[in-house]
Amino acid sequence: MTRLARIGAAFSALMMLAACGFTPLYAEPGVSPTLSRISVSVPDTRAGYELRQALEDELAWDRGQTPLWRLQTDVEQRRVALGRRVDDTVSRYELVLTVRYQLAPVSGGEAITDAVTATVTYAAADQAYAAIAAQRDGEQRAVAEAARLIRLDLSRALADLNRP
C-alpha cells in the first residue's frame, strides 16, 4: 500500500505542476534556439580567447545560422595574495575575474548590459612551471564559471523578452 501511496502522491504533484502554467526555461519555443544564435566578441588576450571558447560551448553556438545577437565582452582580472609562509612568500592566490558584457540585437535595438564576477583560488607552487600551470588552471576555472553565469543571465533575460 505504501508504494501505491507514493505513486499517487507523485502523480498528484505532477498534475499540480502541469496546471500551474510552469514552462521550463529550455522548452520550445524557448531560449535554446536564441542562445545558439549569439556571436561572441572578446578582448584579444589569453583570458579573452578562453572566454570565447567557453561561451561558444555554453551557448551552443551554431556557426551555420546567421547571428541574431552580438555579445561584446570586456575582461578584467585581479590576483590577490591570500596566504604567506614563514619566509614571507605567497602560498595561495585568489583570482577575481570580472566580465562586463553587452548583448545587442544585430538588427539594432536596445542592448542588455550587465557584469558577472567569478572568484577562484589556487596554490602557489615553488617551481616556476608548476606556478604557471596553477595560475592558468585558475584562469580556466574562473573563465568557465564566468561563461556559465553569463549563459544563465542571458537565458533569463531572453526568456523575459520572449514572454507574451
Structure description:
The chain is of the alpha+beta class and 164 residues long. Helix content is 43%, strand content 29%. A four-stranded mixed sheet has the order 1-2-3-4. Strand 2 and strand 3 form a beta hairpin.
Give the tags.
4-stranded mixed beta sheet, flat, 164 residues, 4 helices, alpha+beta
Topology, element by element:
Layout: H1 2-19, H2 32-35, E1 38-41, H3 46-59, E2 69-84, E3 90-105, E4 112-123, H4 128-162
Parallel strand pairs: 1-2
Antiparallel strand pairs: 2-3, 3-4
Give me a quick take on this structure.
With 164 residues, the chain is an alpha+beta fold.
Largest sheet: 4 strands, mixed
Number of helices: 4
Estimate what percentage of residues fall within beta strands.
25-35%
Unreliably modeled segments: 26-30
Instruction: Label the structural class.
Output: alpha+beta
Report how far apart the termini are: 45 Å
Helical amount among residues, as a percent range? 40-55%
